[in-house]
Amino acid sequence: MSTFRFHALQKATDRTPVAVDDSERKSAIFGSNVFNDKAMRQFLTPEAYKAVKNAIENGIKIDRKIAEYIAMGMKEWALSKGVTHYTHWFQPLTGTTAEKHDAFFETSMDGSDPVEKFGGSQLAQQEPDASSFPNGGIRNTFEARGYTAWDPTSPAFIFGTTLCIPTVFISYTGEALDNKTPLLRALHAIDNAATDVAKYFDKNVKKVTPTLGWEQEYFLVDAALANSRPDILATGRTLLGHTSAKGQQLEDHYFGSIPTRVLQYMRDLEKECMLLGIPVKTRHNEVAPNQYELAPIFEETNLAVDHNSLLMDVMQKVAERHHFKVLFHEKPFKGVNGSGKHNNWSLATDTGINLLSPGRTPMSNLQFLTFFINTIKAVHDYEELMRASIASASNDHRLGANEAPPAIISVFIGQQLTNVLAELEGVSSGKLSPEEKTDLKLNVVGKLPDVLLDNTDRNRTSPFAFTGNKFEFRAVGSTANCAVSMTTLNTIVAKQLKDFKVEVDALIETKDMKKDDAIFNVLREYIKKTKAILFEGDGYSEAWEIEAKKRGLSNHKTTPKALKAKVSKQAIDLFGEMNVMDHVEVESRYEIELEEYTKKIQIEGRVLGDIARNHVIPTSIRYQNTLIENVRGLKEIFGKDFEKIAKEQIGLIKEISEHIEGINSNVEAMTEERKKANALNSSEKMADAYCEKVKPYFDIIRSHCDKLELLVDDEIWTLAKYRELLFVR
Ligand code: ADP
Ligand code: MG
């Protein structure tokens, strides 16, 4: 007799690597499925081409008539590549991407004149069934009307036989219903604020573009094994499973070679990415068994966010061909490292300067320090909002689990920059003497470049680290849509730069200071005020939790607690002032995130209860019956001596019964708590109840199940075990 698990195991071990043809040069195929500059030049009229360029570079709206021409060109391009359908591709607030496919093909009313139709209005506007997407109470369902509109700053692309048009998703009353809209507004805000500040140093700067280079971590599990686990199917993670005797202790996976089946998957994936214009660059094993990472060359933030969302779709689709399932969950396996998505972030000018990279002259270094210190100040002032921006049920498993940054936001800058800030802090207030200024420029600001080239003292425990020429937001979860963290980061830095400019201008005007003096003075004050957020030590240590508390930094370990910062007065004022979201949008997002949290925990609770009762208990009873049979037999043979001889078996029979009882009583108690939570009348209270009353049962139920896994005969255990999920490839 063999279980579903052994069938799955058989399938998994019988697999052979799938052949991949990636002989074509990457540079030859890069972006060939993207309506990029080259395609636009070829398929658009000069007028239409100019309009798109203007929209991308200067945010100029495209008028209706021109949209008609653009649609025509885009359609011709798509048809030339065998495309049959088009879709508005967008990012609703639940983290995944959404699409509604429509055929190009249309006929007239009587069925004659079949044509491939796709005009300006199809390009610009579509009406998805908005009622099926979360709106956090913005509109009642009966009036649920929203539309998607083309975002020309992200190029259309072809996936399969479908033309995908990146779009924003907005309600008819104007509120954003997606992740992209606020991001675009935040990027606009930081462009304005950063350009104004950059002009202190170079009058020619006309535009500042935030850049993002994400690093995507993930697990690959054989599809048959993953499918044999109801928890992986329903929640993306294992809710139970005894730790494998061999885990990641030896760290042999990280430095090992990539297994052939996986390598074939990666090659296939990279080819798809190349076609889609996603500039993937590095691939390697991660710390945990079956864990990997993929990172692209950084891009303009909006495009990088789209590319990450698209990549996550593509990864899953390519995985099907290779009989893998991709686990994006932050913590798919207990006792094994989880996954994150580092967000590397910087600011680039249209004059080709990275504002977070020290330059060759004292002046460019002062520019660097200005953006560097303002970023620190922004994170200092809005640390709770930064924490909230990465909060999710799944990321809760990771933050503070001593493998990822803690739930406390701090900034790591390295010893050398710490020294530079200390010297700047000593700058005397008011106007500087010529000697002071020379000293400062030569000995402090002027020394920067060689200092930063070798920024090797990286601190892996920091949630927000400066890494030489960019900041790295490391606490972002692997399932997250980067738009959320990027909207927050760019908005707070925009606000900070705006305030900075006001302060510097005031000193120049009212105190008659020179520009440099004014900048030094304001920066000095910032250094003094923001010390609490700087931390160079071990972020995993208990000492840091105590120290952080003294410093007044927040430490919200759960999503419901962390999310509250999203609707604080400070946050609502911030997003309002920077024109990123009005209070209705902010509040509706908060609602949606609470609901999502509740649903996730609710599903996990149900699935855990089901598996415990439908898999673990029946299997355990079967094994217990075998033991009972055995004891009966021994009694028959040995008579009254049987008790001594069957001691082990009798002990096991009892132990199994105790764990079964433990499962039953706790599943019942958990169900009761769920019922109580469901009856609560606000999403805030419900999320709190699910977090504090329901979730604690998970560990208790799991520990009974995991003990049973160890006791029960391996032959009859139905669920793929950790060693199989983690080591079969
Ligand atoms: P790791 O964190 O794994 O050590 P790195 O620190 O080298 O790796 O990170 C490299 C990542 O940083 C890449 O994804 C790259 O695209 C990104 N990156 C490099 N420069 C910038 C920049 N100026 N802006 C945004 N991202 C950048
Ligand atoms: Mg990194």
From TrEMBL:
Family to which the UniProt record says this protein belongs: Belongs to the glutamine synthetase family.
Name the record gives this protein: Glutamate--ammonia ligase
Q: Report the coiled-coil segments.
A: 653-680
GO BP terms: glutamine biosynthetic process
Q: Which SMART domains match?
A: Gln-synt_C
Q: What is its EC number?
A: 6.3.1.2
Tell me what organism the protein belongs to.
Flavobacterium limnosediminis JC2902
Q: What sequence ranges are listed for the domain GS beta-grasp? A: 84-174
